[in-house]
Amino acid sequence: MLSLCMIVRDEAERLARCLQSAAAAVDEMIVVDTGSVDETMAIAQAFGAKVFSMPWQNDFAIARNESLRHATGDWVLVLDADETLVADCVPLLRQTIQAEHTLVINLLRQEVGAVQSPYSLVSRLFRRHPDLRFARPYHATIDDAVATLLQQEPTWGVVDLSQVAILHDGYDPVAIARRDKLEKARSVMEGYWQAHPDDPYECSKLGALYVQMGEVERGIQLLQRGLQSPLLKASQMDAPVRYELHYHLGIAHTRLNQLDTAAQHYQAALQQPLMDPLKLGAYNNLGSLCKTTGDLATARQFYEQCLAIDPGFAAGHYNLGTTLRAQGQITDAVTHYQAAIRLQPDHAEAHQNLGVALIKLGQVEAGLASFGRAIALHAQTNPAQAERLRQGLKEMGFAI
Q1: Nearest to residue 312, comparing CAs of 162, 165, 112?
Q2: Residue of 53, 194, 76 whose CA lies nearest to 126
Q3: Which of 6, 37, 190, 281 is 20 to 30 A distant from 267 in Cα terms?
Q4: Cβ proximity of 55 and 145 under 8 Å
Q5: CA 373 to CA 216: how far, in whole Å?
Q6: What letter would DSSP give residue 88?
Q7: Hey, is 106 helix, strand or coil?
Q8: Structural domain boundaries of the chain?
Q9: Which range among 88-92, 180-184, 277-281, 330-334 shows the weakest confidence by mean pLDDT?
Q10: Cβ-count burial 312-322 (b if 16+ within 10 Å, e if not)
C-alpha cells in the first residue's frame, strides 16, 4: 500500500492537478493543511484525501512529520502542490517498491523552467519506517535519518531512478528572487546553521543563498567550510552535497571574475559520481567560462555534451547557438536558436539572437519578426532592454 503525504497552504490553484496526477498511483492521500483561507481543503476532500489541520510552526519538517503520522501505507510518496507525478513512471515505481530490502527510492525531478539546474534527485519515495522522519526547518529532508538508519541496519538499500518521475513547475525566477522570500529563508536557515555549524548540507544551501543575495565572499567562506567539514564523507550518499558545494563555489568565483578557480570547482563537481542530468549546470557553466575566455571550441564541446545528456535543454541550444554564431556558423546557430524557442517560447534572448542571425543571412523580414517578439517579451520583464532594441533597430534603419 502506497500513501501520498502532502503539506499545503492556500494551494487551490494547483492542488487539483497534483492530486489528479497521483490518484491512480497511490492507495491513500494524506493532506495536512497549515492554515489555508481558500478552497484548498475542499479540493483535497473532493479527491478523497484524508485532510488534517495544524498551525504553521515555521518549520517544514514538523509539518511533514505530521503528515507521516497519519499515513497507513507500507510506502510513502511525498509531493508538493506545484509538482505532478509523471504517469509513465508509475509502473516503474510500483515495481521498485516491491524490492524487499529497499528503504528509499530517490526520484529524478525535472525543474520546469529552471535555467541553471533543470534536474534534481529527491528522496520522496520511502518505506514507512518508525525511524524515518524529516529534519531541517527549511529544506526538510529524510536524508539525515536515512544515513543514521543505514549505519544501524546496513542491509537496507537506496535506489536512484534515472527516469523522470516528478515535474516541478513552481520555478518562478521573479518570485524566488523576491527579497522578502530570500530574507525569510535566510532567517530560518541561519538559525539551523548556528546550531549545526559544520553541517555540509546546510553550508551548501546557506552559502548558495548568500551568493544569490550578493554576499559572495561570505558565501564562499561557508561553502569552503562545508567542503572542509569532517562530517562530509567520501561516500556515494554525500556525492550530491559535494557536487553542490563545488558547483556554487564555481558560481561564486565567477561572480568575482576568478575564472580559473571557478573552472576548477566546476571540474570537481563533474567528478562526483552522479547521474549525468544532475551535472547539466556544471557542464553548461563551464561552457560559458570557456566562451568568456574566447575558447569557443571547448565551449562548443561542453554545450554539445549538455545536449547529448538532454536534447530538451533549452539553455544548451541557446548557448550552442551563440557559440556557433561567434564561430561564423550562422545557419547552424539559427537551428539551435529555433530549438531553444520551441522548448521555451518566452526566451527573449533566443528570439533576439535569432533576429540578428536571420538578418545576417539576408532574411530581413523574418529577422525583424524575431526582433518584434524579443521586444514584446523584454517589455514584460525588462522595458529598458526593449527600448534599447527599438533604438538600435531604428539606428540601423529598421522600425518595429
Answers
A1: 112
A2: 76
A3: 190
A4: no
A5: 35
A6: G
A7: strand
A8: 2-171, 172-274
A9: 180-184
A10: ebbbbbbbbbb
The SS3 assignment for 100 reads: coil
Q: Is the pLDDT of residue 177 over 70?
A: no
Distance CA 255, CA 257 (A): 5
Span 306-327, pLDDT tens digits: 999 999 999 999 999 999 999 9
DSSP for residue 277:
G
Q: How far is CA 52 from the centre of its chain?
A: 29
DSSP three-state, residue 334: helix
**Does 253 score more than 80 pLDDT?**
yes
Contact 365, 387 (CB under 8 A): no
DSSP code for 384: H
DSSP secondary structure letter of residue 9: S
Q: Which H or E run includes 155?
A: none
Q: Which CATH number fits domain 172-274: 1.10.1040.10, 3.30.70.20, 1.25.40.10, 3.40.630.30?
A: 1.25.40.10
Q: Does the global pTM surpass 0.85?
A: yes
Residue 77 parent element (H or E): strand 75-78
Q: Which of 306, 361, 304, 321 is nearest to 117 (CA)?
A: 306
Burial of residue 214 (CB within 10 Å: 0-12, 13-18, 19+) is exposed
Q: Is the predicted pLDDT of residue 233 greater than 90, yes or no?
A: no
Cβ atoms within 10 Å of 176's Cβ, excluding its own: 13
Q: Residue 210 corresponds to which amino acid? A: Y
Taking the domain 2-171, which CATH number applies?
Answer: 3.90.550.10
How many angstroms separate the CA atoms of 31 and 46, rounded?
12
| Strand (E) or helix (H) holding 20 | helix 15-22
340 pLDDT band, cuts 50/70/90, is: very high
| Cα–Cα distance list, 180 to 37, 111, 151, 175, 354 (Å) | 21, 22, 40, 10, 36
At what angle are helices 296-309 and 280-292 packed, to 10 degrees?
A: 160
